[in-house]
Amino acid sequence: MNDRPIKVMVVDDQDLVRDGIAMILDGQPDIEVVAQAVDGADAIRQAAAILDLAVVLMDVRMPVMDGLEATRQLAGGPRVLILTTFDLDEYVYDALRAGASGFLLKRSSRDELINAVRVIAAGDALLAPPVTRRLIDRFADTRLDPAVAARIDVLTAREREVLVLVAKGNSNAEVADELHLTEHTVKTHVSRMLAKLGLRDRVQAVILAYDAGLVTAGQR
């Protein structure tokens, strides 16, 4: 068992927001805020010098370098959790495509913030289905990429069914209920699906499903 705290960086150009988030997280025994950055460029510089940085909480609109470009440059490193408000939906979608592992609304509660960091650090993706559906419905129509469709051919029929349901924002429990499977079996299908497609998490699976046209905006 790993008892080391989750190392976190908070990136936001507003001092009060950044300090407030850092204070909440630092109060948890399993979380340590090791850095704060005022923009994306600052985040990139600091991240390069921090060993075992696990999660970066990233604002989107910032001077010098925005959160989208910073997320893209951090790909393959610490996992990025986007901090956003509803009016930033388009930026969030782009950030997810750039490699972010999820997003959190700035109006979220203290407990939701703490849970989000733990979820992302554990290697899972943070998908809030209602917000995810709103994002996809608004922007997916203009982002379909037929070239991606061929990647889906490696999946079995069951894995394809699971991917479609995940892309619609369903939890593992909801997928299990829909397909009359156990939740454990669904988790196995999700893991195999991600491995075959070379994806890191469920967020990337959702993006790929829409890019491939496997699911379309407005579909439920």
UniProtKB/TrEMBL annotation:
Q: Which organism is it from?
A: Kribbella yunnanensis
Against SUPFAM superfamilies, the record matches this protein to: C-terminal effector domain of the bipartite response regulators (SSF46894), CheY-like (SSF52172)
Domain Response regulatory residue range list? 7-121
Under InterPro entries, the record lists: CheY-like_superfamily (IPR011006), NreC/VraR/RcsB-like_REC (IPR058245), Sig_transdc_resp-reg_C-effctor (IPR016032), Sig_transdc_resp-reg_receiver (IPR001789), Tscrpt_reg_LuxR_C (IPR000792), WalR-like (IPR039420)
Spell out which residues are annotated as carrying 4-aspartylphosphate.
D59
Matches recorded under Gene3D superfamilies: 3.40.50.2300
Domain (HTH luxR-type): residue spans on this chain: 148-213
* Origin: domain of life: Bacteria
Q: Does the keyword Ion transport apply?
A: no
Q: What is this protein called?
A: Response regulator transcription factor
Q: Which UniProt keywords apply?
A: DNA-binding, Phosphoprotein, Transcription, Transcription regulation
> What is one Pfam family matched by this protein?
Response_reg
